[in-house]
Design goal:
Layout (H helix, E strand, L loop, with lengths): L1 E5 L4 H12 L3 E6 L18 E5 L5 H9 L3 E4 L6 H6 L1 H22 L2 E7 L26 H22 L3 E6 L2 E2 L10 H11 L3 E4 L5 E3 L1 E2 H13 L7 E4 L4 E3 H12 L5 E4 L1 H4 L15 H7 L7 H15 L3
Parallel strand pairs: 1-2, 1-4, 2-3, 4-5, 5-6, 6-11, 7-10, 8-13
Antiparallel strand pairs: 9-12
The protein binds uridine-5'-diphosphate.
The site of uridine-5'-diphosphate has 14 residues, from helix 6 and strand 8.
């Protein structure tokens, strides 16, 4: 089997590439390196069963050739990271909506199964945690840039499901919840690599708001393993799956945990949301997945504890001193 990974030089994409290669797939990764990086796939570059294409997914000619030559598509290329989205909403909307439109149209041309990476942002500021795949979505106004991300990914989901329903294209949608691991960068806002970098540098850890908001951080190894099992399961087609951890932690406790695990002398500072992002920024107070659907179909059970994952991230930062 030959797999095409869009966003294959990104954080999750590069881990998925390794996972697929280990399972015996040949892998082609396409990435424009806008947020991904060649360092993520450096170890794979010399392999005969791995190919990297530096190109954007909106290049129809290149995508047509790559899709025609593969058996399955893992579509992960997207604009991600809350900070990036608030800073550059045009890029976010265009990449996510136009890029996915191109991928699905060409996938349908060659009838290739497509696994679409989506996000827990989809649930918006719903208070109905734990979130079920068929739960309602609660969005803020269009004047707040953050919501452009959730809505662009929601359009991606709608389009994928429409191709499935109307044209019979096999699609599977995976909603990732705060996935973390080695090689994730804090440059676009993600909290765990930011805290680890700050702690190791002896800088204050910047907790936004009062830190009482909570998240469940999933290890990328657990998530990519589940993506592969869903891709290979005929019963997953046409469905949406939450993939994440159920170990919930407040952001203030996360900061304390990172300080303890790094042995850092850093302090914690509270930064108002409007300073961190933009005036009127809206955050989600609690984000917890209901993972029973993936548990029932593929026996998805996250195995890594948050402490174990944090330790591996800290070790990676110490080795590579990345951002
Ligand atoms: N956050 C924080 N300090 C940072 C970056 C993020 O306190 O330096 C908070 C952010 O406001 C949110 C949580 O950490 O409440 C998770 O943020 P992230 O961007 O990693 O993911 P999100 O869940 O918002 O998509």
């Amino acid at each position: 089997m030959k797999a095409l990974i869009t966003g294959g030089a990104g954080f999750i994409g590069s881990h998925l590439a390794e996972r697929l290669l280990a399972a015996g797939y040949r892998v082609v990764a396409i990435d424009d390196l806008s947020t991904g990086s060649e360092a993520n796939i450096r170890r794979l570059l010399g392999r005969a069963d791995f190919q990297f294409v530096l190109e954007t997914i909106t290049n129809e000619t290149v995508m047509d050739r790559l899709v025609s030559e593969c058996d399955i598509i893992f579509h992960l290329a997207a604009a991600v990271g809350v900070e990036l989205i608030v800073r550059d909403p045009v890029h976010t909307i265009e990449t996510n909506v136009l890029g996915t439109g191109t991928v699905l149209r060409i996938a349908n041309r060659y009838r290739r199964k497509t696994i679409l990476a989506s996000t827990s942002e989809i649930y918006g500021k719903s208070n109905d945690a734990p979130f079920r795949e068929d739960g309602d979505r609660v969005m803020g106004p269009t004047t707040r840039s953050r919501w452009a991300y959730a809505n662009s990914k929601a359009m991606d989901e709608f389009l994928a499901l429409a191709y499935h329903k109307q044209r019979g294209l096999p699609v599977v949608i995976c909603r990732f919840f705060n996935t973390i691991g080695p090689r994730q960068t804090g440059r676009y806002g993600m909290v765990v690599p930011r805290f680890v970098r700050q702690a190791l540098a002896g800088e204050p850890l910047t907790v936004y708001g009062d830190g009482s908001q909570s998240r469940c951080f999933a290890d990328v190894a657990d998530v990519t393993g589940a993506v592969l099992r869903l891709a290979e399961h005929a019963g997953a087609v046409g469905q949406v799956f939450n993939l994440g951890s159920t170990e919930e932690i407040t952001i203030l406790d996360l900061a304390r945990r990172v300080i303890a695990l790094t042995g850092s002398r850093s302090e914690i500072v509270l930064v108002p949301y409007e300073e961190a992002y933009e005036p009127g920024f809206e955050d989600m107070h609690r984000r917890v997945p209901d993972i029973s659907r993936a548990a029932a179909l593929i026996e998805y059970r996250p195995r890594c504890t948050l402490d174990d994952t944090l330790r591996r991230i800290i070790a990676h930062f110490r080795e590579f001193a990345s951002v």
